[in-house]
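Final report, Chapter 2: Outcomes

The project's central promise was a pipeline that accepts a single protein chain and returns its three-dimensional structure in a standardized token representation, suitable for archiving and comparison. That pipeline is now operational. To close this chapter, we reproduce one record exactly as it appears in the project archive, with the input sequence first and the structure output second.
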Amino acid sequence: MIVSSLALAEPSAEAQQPGKVPLIGYLNVPLRQDDSFPSGFRRGLNEPFRQGLRELGYVEGQNFILQPGIGDDGQFQNLAAGLVQLKVDVIVAQTPAAISAAMKATKTVPIVMNSPADPVLLGFVGSLERPGGNVTGLSGLTTELGGKWLELVKETIPNARRVAVLWNQGAEYHFPTWKSVELAARSLKVDIEWVEIRNIIDIRRRFRSAIWGKPDAFIVLPGFAGGRNLQEIAEIGLKNRIPGMFWRTDLDLEQMGGLMAYGANRAEQSRRAAYFVDKILKGAKPAELPVELPKSFELVINLKTAKEIGVTIPPGVLAWADRVIK
């Protein structure tokens, strides 16, 4: 069970004094099933965010206090409400579920998102140029990357003819991604087997059933918030020697046993989230701060897993990788 980490104690008197020490709320999921605060909180996307604050001259405990709210999707509503109760000056939300929960909890506290999806499609903002409400931040635009994931799979495994694509139909931002995958599949002459995954039970039942059909590869679309689910998927793929493409490049592919990951550099985006926090703390309105698109994407390849499952990564793909795990 994932442990939430929001302490509902009142912040210090110093933090409550206007203009003294801003209180920054932080909503995110732990990276692995056994993560809990403080160890899990200091991994993943939190450290780049702290780094971004340091680069802007912030010193934790002196001119800002970070209040974490770490938990799974089902806990975000209570965690967000708790942050609002603590009268945080701004909330940083790292997943669509966290952003949605923060928006339900407050219409006035500024929210800085680091969304892996299209925030306009999900209704988080009115437009990228003028968000319009109390939400701004960064978008990973994963809805446009479905075709790229399939292209990379095909480049890595030229003989691939059938690819299983794991998706969560409940994640609304899958539909543009789905279309992107379908378009690429037609041009690449690849058959797609859609495997709907909503929870850990579906992974063990539906994904394993798909694996029995021996697909040439699998792709994991966004929509699986917790690292626990991704870990289970990676382990099943590794055990059955099926190469997999993941969308989160901040995952520990070596520890998980995944083969590849491609997407927006989420660590860099998390660092950039500090820029929005700084602007807001200095008086900028979220409604008038344009949403920022990814400045960089990265490809991660795990050669250890490649060797274990018998896949040879083509030199061209390997040369393009930003990080190679040997």
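Archive annotation: The longest strand covers residues 23-28.
This record, like all others produced under the grant, will remain available to the consortium after the project formally closes.
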